[in-house]
From TrEMBL:
The lineage of its organism: Bacteria, Pseudomonadati, Pseudomonadota, Gammaproteobacteria, Oceanospirillales. It comes from Gynuella sunshinyii YC6258. One of its GO terms (biological process) is UDP-glucuronate biosynthetic process. Residues 320-424 form the UDP-glucose/GDP-mannose dehydrogenase C-terminal domain. Pathway: Nucleotide-sugar biosynthesis; UDP-alpha-D-glucuronate biosynthesis; UDP-alpha-D-glucuronate from UDP-alpha-D-glucose: step 1/1. Substrate binds at residues 155-158, 210, 255-259, 263, 327. This is UDP-glucose 6-dehydrogenase. The keyword NAD applies. InterPro entries: 6-PGluconate_DH-like_C_sf (IPR008927), NAD(P)-bd_dom_sf (IPR036291), UDP-Glc/GDP-Man (IPR017476), UDP-Glc/GDP-Man_DH_C (IPR014027), UDP-Glc/GDP-Man_DH_C_sf (IPR036220), UDP-Glc/GDP-Man_DH_dimer (IPR014026), UDP-Glc/GDP-Man_DH_N (IPR001732), UDPglc_DH_bac (IPR028357).
Amino acid sequence: MKVTVFGIGYVGLVQGAILAEVGHDVCCVDVDSAKIEKLKNGVIPIYEPGLETLVKENFDSGRLHFTTSAEEGVGHGEIQFIAVGTPPDEDGSADLKYVLAVAETIATHMNTYKVVVDKSTVPVGTADKVSQKIAQVLKERNVAFPFDVISNPEFLKEGSAVNDCMRPDRIIIGTDSDRAEEAMRELYAPFNRNHEKMIVMDVRSAELTKYAANCMLATKISFMNEMANLAEKLGADIEHVRQGIGSDPRIGYHFIYPGIGYGGSCFPKDVQALIRTADSIKFDATVLKAVEARNYAQKNVLFEKVQKYFGDNLKGKVFAVWGLSFKPNTDDMREAPSRVLMESLWDAGASVQAYDPEAMEETQRIYGSRESLNLVGTKEAALRNADALLILTEWQAFKAPDFEFIKSQLKSPVIFDGRNLYEPHRMKSKGFTYVSIGRAG
Ligand code: UGA
């Protein structure tokens, strides 16, 4: 099938690449000409395992094209994906200006039936707005081509995006049009082989499904963070509690890892956006508000532990930081807990020696050159003469370090672990002061 994808960010690029991989003819459109040129030369703008090869191979095979020409894009696909960003507005609600601009573009150039697919995470009611926009532009053009606007939210996770898209748990299609449903069934047939993954529903339910999924996962995390803080105060160990409750299949082991708060471009934005949607219809989303408040507080928990140990004035102290990205296997720093922590350390007069396997360039881009931030090339170099080690992202490379070496490099053997990577009793026997989340030190 011929498919067009507008917006070559995370979602759009992965979506375009996997559709090309299974044989579709995909045209990717973006307004950023520098990005399009880079992609044509095999340079991928993001770090995502497996994506570079996938893009290169499909580009070389001629199934994946990149262009800045909206007209070419609209002319190409019967199916037109909208995968542009929906950044939070000042009040936290999702800003639809890019989505509606693509709708206008499609309507300006279309001259035959199109299935317009909202792939970006958009508030309930957006498909109606996109429909209205297309209808309005067609009317202005004095033409009448048939079209359907449907919702097909994306559930990929950064770091495993290619795999998530190639092997989706479910494919949500929100539409009441048989014609659009049939087109989507044909498009996704290669991903729907072993058992039925397609769930077809009305468009508003599909839009809400996306928010409900992310908010449910964020709720699990905030709940566990609350339990962790409580466990500490009660002299319990959250890791035992986690295993104890995860063994109940109704609860499950996924997304109940306590830590220093959820980050990334999705959970914080989507929880806020759903709160704003609820507010707009005068519905008080009490659970979501609590989830957000707990997460906000949780990002400060490790800093409070540092202060408890070293005192409020951290002037002259140097902290080794392992891990900057909001989670492993990505270079994404959006809403990363590391940012809140480093900024608090700087405000208190401390400086940071940091290492991350992928997010160093991104950190440099965000913070520029400053005396209080020393980005170093290895996790070992980060330790040199530091007052303590802070672990902020659970990269594999941090899970079994040489503890004797750590001890030899730090001024004193103190580790603040925001990801609970090690066993407290073992750390104690190795001679460390080990402070983690929800566990006795
Ligand atoms: C999330 C969802 O998991 C995807 O299904 C969804 O498609 C995506 O948002 C999106 O809306 O585009 P992602 O933001 O890539 O994916 O990251 P996750 O792996 O879900 O992690 C989010 C945050 O939760 C991270 O900061 C992570 O450290 C934290 N987390 C996760 C915990 O603190 N504890 C856990 O047990 C799990």
